[in-house]
Design a protein that fits this description.
12 helices, 291 residues, single chain
């Protein structure tokens, strides 16, 4: 893999470093309800990674030693991202039921028609199907990376900013692996390129779609990428993904943004809404969510 040193990645992998982050001070600084909603969405997706891993290992990806080595660490790192986001949310007064993760996974399995279709393809052991997983993962990791970066740029909460800055370092490595592996699998492989392009064009949707309600996905997309800067960020992401052989012209992220804004009836978001501090609002800090 020419643009990724797998050994270097493996040696760099570890539990998310939270040393020096004082979650007790998180509620001393502003945090908006919009940020809380998006962070809850991200927490849910990070803790759902093990289910994605289950689906990946049902395909021929399980026979590629590079992929299995990476995935073993990927799911571990994502688990700690979810735990860290949950710790921040608790620190600013959000309470979630212990059964939340189980409830989300059960609902996802009951309603995951697209996931079942993908599993059916994987079960056929199509030689090119691993490339679908890698290209799909690259898009998801890139959008996650830039979603966190958008929150870093806009939040007024320094505790959150520091936490997300550390998570972003892992997400960069995750994206680098998926992209590098996708490029290897698609290079000089027209059959794989046709399959990946067909599947992405028809079925790809923003990360978390199907795991959480569509309205929550649309809200996250609109909040993070609904303004002029978000539009530019998505266009740059589309350009980067389309440098992979066979994916030119898809404009997946830009199209997904347009759909999310249309469903949410939000023409654009010029700036975050006013923020408020939780420190002086103890009643809101006792809020409990089922899932």
């Amino acid at each position: 893999m020419s643009d990724l040193d797998l050994a270097k990645y493996l040696s760099a992998s570890r539990k998310l470093d939270l040393e020096g982050i004082d979650f007790r001070r998180a509620a001393d600084f502003p945090v908006s309800r919009e940020e809380i909603r998006v962070l809850t969405y991200m927490m849910d997706i990070e803790t759902h990674t093990v289910v994605y891993l289950r689906d990946l290992l049902a395909s021929q990806a399980a026979y590629d030693p590079d992929i299995t080595a990476f995935l073993s660490l990927w799911v571990y790192e994502e688990l700690w991202h979810g735990e860290a986001l949950a710790a921040f949310l608790r620190a600013v007064g959000e309470r979630h039921a212990p059964a939340r993760i189980t409830s989300i996974r059960c609902e996802t399995d009951r309603g995951g028609a697209v996931a079942r279709w993908l599993k059916t393809l994987a079960a056929r052991r199509l030689p090119s199907f691993v490339a679908v997983h890698m290209a799909w993962g690259a898009i998801n990791e890139l959008s996650t990376l830039h979603g966190y970066k958008r929150l870093i740029a806009t939040t007024r909460n320094p505790v959150l900013r520091e936490l997300l800055t550390r998570i972003v370092k892992d997400e960069r490595r995750h994206y680098a692996f998926y992209r590098a592996k996708a490029r290897v699998l698609l290079k000089d492989n027209p059959q794989a390129q046709r399959l990946v392009r067909r599947v992405l064009a028809r079925f790809w949707a923003p990360v978390g779609t199907g795991v959480r309600p569509q309205a929550e996905t649309d809200f996250a997309v609109a909040h993070l990428f609904g303004d002029a800067e978000g539009t530019a960020v998505l266009a740059a992401m589309d350009d980067e993904i389309e440098q992979i052989d066979g994916l030119a012209g898809l404009q997946l992220l830009t199209r997904a943004r347009a759909g999310a804004l249309r469903r949410a009836s939000v023409p654009s978001i010029e700036a975050p809404s006013p923020v408020s501090s939780f420190k002086n609002d103890r009643r809101r800090r006792a809020r409990t969510h089922a899932y």
